[in-house]
Design brief:
Blueprint lengths: L1 H21 L10 H18 L4 H9 L1 H32 L13 H23 L8 H19 L1 H5 L7 H5 L1 H17 L12 H29 L5
């Protein structure tokens, strides 16, 4: 009886969903609103309305800013979850180990060490460039943060964790890891106070610089947070060993 009721409930719920799906435009149809209204609006008025010459940035950080705000929050929450699991596992290993394990650090080639030291400043500059120019060219916070996070991992493997951590001081590491959702919230609250809606951008042409500035601030927050999260997970997993 219980199974029959469950099956009947699922069928009852699926019927309106199936009906709604049948009313959707055919996939790829030229008459779909995505092609007739949305895409042209983004391409024609994106730079003017959203504040960035790069239409992808306009869409991600302005038109669908709520979605991206949720994404960066999920990423930070995932970091907290990974930390919780890894810390619990590490505490269990420490309690079960009768003798401390010997840590072995493989020797690093002098050539690899020299190349990493030589190229690291240029890689860091490139990461900053990608973040700061995401509103006018391909790139942005996610991409620049990934580049800098990879640099931190490379520096850890080749130069040691102590050297890599100098680029990310421990006293502010937690704040850096939360930079993406914090900057989104800050810009969102500023929009709420100044323009009446959370994450609202100014529409007046005279305030176009404010739209661009807010986009850059969000890009920086995403870049810093992304790099910190990538390196933090690597270090927590014992990537320095």
């Amino acid at each position: 009886m219980k199974r029959a009721l469950t099956a009947a409930f699922l069928v009852l719920v699926s019927l309106p969903l199936l009906y709604a799906m049948s009313q959707l435009p055919q996939h790829g149809s030229a008459t779909s609103p995505a092609y007739t209204h949305i895409a042209p609006r983004y391409l024609e008025r994106g730079p003017e309305e959203a504040g960035a010459e790069n239409v992808v940035t306009d869409v991600i950080l302005n038109y669908r800013g709520f979605d991206t705000n949720g994404e960066v929050t999920v990423i930070f929450t995932s970091l907290a979850a990974v930390f919780a699991v890894l810390l619990a596992g590490r505490e269990g290993d420490e309690r079960s180990a009768s003798e401390p394990r010997a840590r072995t650090t493989p020797e690093v080639s002098p050539v690899a060490s020299f190349v990493v030291r030589l190229l690291s400043p240029f890689v860091a500059i490139f990461a900053v460039y990608v973040v700061m120019n995401g509103h006018i060219s391909p790139g942005g916070g996610f991409q620049g943060g990934t580049v800098f996070g990879a640099l931190l991992i490379l520096a850890t493997v080749v130069l040691g964790k102590a050297t890599a951590e100098k680029l990310q001081p421990a006293r502010i590491r937690g704040l850096l890891q939360a930079a993406a959702p914090l900057t989104f919230i800050a810009v969102g609250v500023a929009g709420l106070i100044m323009f009446g809606d959370y994450l609202a951008f100014p529409k007046a042409a005279a305030l176009a610089w404010v739209r661009t500035l807010w986009l850059i601030v969000i890009e920086i927050g995403i870049g810093v947070g992304g790099a910190s999260i990538i390196s933090a997970i690597f270090w927590q997993m014992g990537g320095d060993r």
